[in-house]
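WARN retry 2 of 3 for item q-0093 after timeout on previous attempt; input resubmitted unchanged.
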Amino acid sequence: MDFEILVALAVFTEKAVTWSRVSEAIADFNRRGALVPSDIQEAFDLLGDDLDQMLATAPPEVVGLS
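OK item q-0093 returned
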């Protein structure tokens, strides 16, 4: 596996883990009936869009390993 694939995989994995953790935090806010701050919701949405774009344009090796 070449270096570029490893870097892409690391970046994608880090963003996916962050997105997942924030998703859990937002769900916790919602369960408690608390409002999610708009800046957090906006950043979460942007990160999700970024992940979607990365997945759509990633080399097959990155998609297969992630």
